[in-house]
């Protein structure tokens, strides 16, 4: 019996792929046809960027992913299946975030390790909001392995060939209200702060070699465009080049942000127009979304990418998205005050659309 236990009502990525492999004509903002020249990039697992400042994930995900794939391959004589998975093993890359958080789950799908049920519950709720259909990765359930939980999601790189990729972290606030009163000081966050600016910690923080999470998050906000534009470019990959994120950490002026967006677009006015249309549609639908009206959305990113044929943009990263009290609703543009749960997501999206226009 396989050590991978899939929740009732869900299928593994390989099983679903078998069921649907001849299905054609899907909208390329969702799943794509599994055949053709895209195979080489099938599981270049995107640059799903999550600002989850918890302990680094273990390597159990990649191990379990390999085991699941090996078991699936052992159960089939389909040469095409073997060819696809073999080609994908060397094509894997992650743009940013903790290592070993993602693993292949089958053609067009990935597994993401989750620390608790927050992101799992968020994706379950998101998948029930018609306003957001096609704006978030498709959610295919959860997978349990020993004491770990993984969610199975649409692989947003599937169908793209060596794409240009950018990850934009949204909002004017990158910490939950529940984290404000957390007094725990962390050595790993102190090291991150010093790496960005050795003079930033106070004398007391230098002596303790630790800072609280809120202190570090507010420091990051001030270092970047988060505090005045409501978004920051967290990571980027241009065609033929390795992912880059370290040089983006201190991009703080609007002119610099426009410059990074210009680099990403690479002179492709057609891509600029299509992304503008997509982001405007995204804004309209987020404004209509019941989910967004009733949730504090912290650390969410807009993930944009394009190649010679395709252009896409999705909302990703919901590890710090939580419901707000029942007597409140959010507009995502009102400035944050303690207790109002506003995080500036739509304020940031307004500015992102304008920056895209100016690039």
From TrEMBL:
<dbReference type="GO" id="GO:0000828">
    <property type="term" value="F:inositol hexakisphosphate kinase activity"/>
</dbReference>
<dbReference type="InterPro" id="IPR038286">
    <property type="entry name" value="IPK_sf"/>
</dbReference>
<protein>
    <recommendedName>
        <fullName>Kinase</fullName>
        <ecNumber>2.7.-.-</ecNumber>
    </recommendedName>
</protein>
<comment type="similarity">
    <text>Belongs to the inositol phosphokinase (IPK) family.</text>
</comment>
<dbReference type="GO" id="GO:0005634">
    <property type="term" value="C:nucleus"/>
</dbReference>
<dbReference type="GO" id="GO:0032958">
    <property type="term" value="P:inositol phosphate biosynthetic process"/>
</dbReference>
<dbReference type="GO" id="GO:0005737">
    <property type="term" value="C:cytoplasm"/>
</dbReference>
<dbReference type="InterPro" id="IPR005522">
    <property type="entry name" value="IPK"/>
</dbReference>
<keyword id="KW-0418">Kinase</keyword>
<feature type="compositionally biased region" description="Basic and acidic residues">
    <location>
        <begin position="27"/>
        <end position="37"/>
    </location>
</feature>
<dbReference type="GO" id="GO:0046854">
    <property type="term" value="P:phosphatidylinositol phosphate biosynthetic process"/>
</dbReference>
<keyword id="KW-0808">Transferase</keyword>
<dbReference type="Pfam" id="PF03770">
    <property type="entry name" value="IPK"/>
</dbReference>
<feature type="region of interest" description="Disordered">
    <location>
        <begin position="1"/>
        <end position="38"/>
    </location>
</feature>
């Amino acid at each position: 019996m396989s050590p991978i236990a899939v929740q009732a009502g869900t299928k593994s990525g390989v099983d679903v792929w078998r069921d649907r492999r001849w299905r054609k004509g899907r909208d390329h903002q969702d799943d794509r046809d599994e055949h053709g020249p895209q195979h080489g990039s099938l599981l270049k697992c995107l640059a799903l960027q999550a600002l989850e400042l918890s302990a680094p994930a273990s390597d159990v995900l990649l191990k379990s992913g390999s085991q699941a794939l090996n078991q699936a391959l052992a159960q089939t004589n389909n040469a095409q299946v073997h060819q696809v998975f073999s080609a994908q093993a060397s094509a894997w890359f992650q743009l940013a975030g903790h290592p070993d958080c993602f693993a292949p789950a089958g053609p067009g799908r990935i597994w993401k390790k989750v620390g608790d049920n927050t992101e799992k519950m968020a994706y379950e709720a998101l998948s029930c909001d018609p306003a957001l259909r096609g704006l978030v990765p498709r959610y295919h359930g959860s997978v349990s392995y020993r004491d770990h939980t993984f969610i199975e999601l649409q692989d947003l790189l599937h169908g793209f060939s060596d794409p240009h990729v950018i990850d934009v972290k949204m909002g004017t606030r990158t910490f939950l209200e529940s984290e404000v009163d957390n007094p725990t000081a962390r050595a790993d966050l102190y090291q991150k702060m010093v790496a960005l600016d050795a003079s930033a910690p106070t004398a007391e923080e230098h002596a303790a070699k630790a800072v609280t999470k809120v202190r570090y998050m507010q420091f990051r906000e001030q270092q970047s465009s988060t505090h005045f534009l409501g978004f920051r470019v967290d990571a980027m990959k241009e065609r033929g080049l390795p992912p880059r994120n370290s040089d983006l950490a201190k991009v703080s002026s609007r002119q610099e942000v426009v410059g990074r967006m210009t680099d990403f677009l690479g002179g492709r006015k057609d891509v600029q127009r299509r992304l503008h249309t997509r982001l405007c549609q995204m804004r309209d639908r987020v404004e209509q979304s019941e989910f967004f009206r009733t949730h504090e959305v912290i650390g969410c990113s807009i993930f944009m990418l394009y190649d010679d044929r395709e252009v896409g943009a999705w909302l990703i990263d919901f590890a710090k998205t939580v419901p707000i009290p029942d007597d409140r609703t959010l507009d995502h543009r009102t400035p944050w005050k303690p207790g109002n749960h506003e995080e500036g997501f739509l304020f940031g999206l307004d500015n992102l659309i304008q920056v895209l226009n100016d690039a």
